[in-house]
Design a protein that fits this description.
- The chain is α+β, with helices and mostly antiparallel strands.
- It has a single domain, classed as Muramoyl-pentapeptide Carboxypeptidase, domain 2 (2-Layer Sandwich), CATH 3.30.1380.
- It has a 5-stranded mixed β-sheet with strand order 2-4-5-7-6. A two-stranded antiparallel sheet has the order 1-3.
- Helix 1 runs antiparallel to helix 4 and helix 3 packs across helix 6.
- The longest helix is centred in the middle third of the chain and has 17 residues.
- The relative contact order is 0.16.
Length: 217
């Protein structure tokens, strides 16, 4: 029944507009790749290679963000390339319409993965175009080893548990160092990190995001 509800949500929204159209026409959003030089974009939710096991973005291929967030991402890319000329930022998720958030919530709300999807009643920072999920990759697009893949949930994905995982031999020094490369570039550009996901960064606090930007319907 839950799967049927999700299909109905996605199909109904798609009849009104695609995810691509919803983002392209939302005031203030820009294609981050037009600002960030050599930014790599691989939107996981436009594929089945994600923890939902299905595409919820359709044919979306661009990373749409608020202009402030896109400028910050470009600065992070510049900082990364200055420190590591052979590495680039590799983006997995950016802005997300609220109706997609509702569809994702319908999939996870009765499962153990519920804590990893924001309740659409409150909204995700992704729904404002102010959050980005990403990693670091070589120039050819091959991601570096972060110890866990994107969208892996549990202690090994948590930045606040890295020291313990390192001491227990569950993460290697090289894996933690790779995370620090990403973190340094993003924090230098002004992004804020999460304690439970090494890949997620916000361009502002929840309160400031809601004051400054309009949620994407």
């Amino acid at each position: 029944m839950r799967t049927l509800v999700v299909v109905v949500l996605l199909a109904g929204a798609a009849r009104a507009q695609s995810v691509k159209d919803a983002l392209a026409h939302h005031p203030g959003l820009v294609d981050a790749a037009t600002i960030g030089k050599e930014l790599q974009v691989e939107l996981k939710y436009a594929t089945r290679d994600n923890f939902l096991g299905r595409s919820v973005y359709g044919d979306l291929a661009a990373c749409w963000l608020q202009r402030d967030a896109a400028d910050m991402l470009a600065r992070a890319q510049d900082a990364l390339v200055r420190a590591h000329p052979d590495l680039r930022l590799h983006v997995y998720d950016c802005a997300r319409p609220s109706w997609v958030q509702r569809a994702m919530w319908a999939i996870v709300k009765d499962t153990p993965r519920r804590p990893y999807v924001a309740d659409p009643a409150k909204g995700s920072i992704h729904n404002f175009g102010c959050a980005v999920d990403l990693t670091v990759a070589a120039r050819d697009g091959t991601p570096v080893d972060m110890g866990t893949p994107f969208d892996t949930f549990g202690d090994l994905a948590r930045p606040d548990r890295e020291i313990d995982a390192l001491e227990e031999g569950k993460l290697t020094g090289a894996q933690v160092a790779n995370r620090l490369v990403l973190r340094e570039a993003m924090l230098r550009a002004g992004f804020r990190m999460l304690a439970n996901e090494w890949w997620h960064f916000d361009c502002a606090t929840h309160a400031d995001t809601r004051k400054k930007y309009k949620i994407i319907p």
